[in-house]
Backbone:
């Protein structure tokens, strides 16, 4: 039954997901953001560790995009049309490092050792 359901619903789900991703991509491009900019390092330790492993110029570019988006949003504006055409919200810079960090965390969990970058709250 599950395979039949996947065959029937799969194409519809993929079409809706693609449409939604395109809509979100347009909204992100309006402010000059990328999908990976939406990851919050304060909420996810793995994201914080993945950002720490990235080259400094990539992190600086991310911070600049976030500041620009905050500024544009507070002014209720979007990017000018010439800059809007150059935006690439689908371009990923964090995914590979994040997958690596999560794989390390799974491996450490299997071995029973804590991650060295785990936050401890007192």
Residues:
């Amino acid at each position: 039954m599950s395979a039949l359901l996947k065959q029937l619903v799969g194409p519809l789900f993929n079409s809706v997901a693609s449409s939604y991703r395109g809509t979100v991509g347009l909204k992100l491009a309006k402010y000059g953001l990328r999908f990976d900019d939406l990851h919050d390092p304060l909420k996810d330790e793995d994201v914080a560790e993945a950002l720490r492993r990235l080259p400094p110029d990539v992190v600086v570019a991310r911070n600049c995009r976030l500041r620009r988006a905050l500024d544009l949003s507070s002014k209720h504006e979007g990017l000018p049309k010439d800059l809007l055409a150059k935006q690439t919200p689908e371009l990923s810079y964090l995914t590979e490092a994040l997958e690596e960090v999560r794989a390390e965390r799974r491996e450490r969990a299997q071995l029973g050792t804590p991650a060295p970058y785990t936050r401890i709250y007192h």
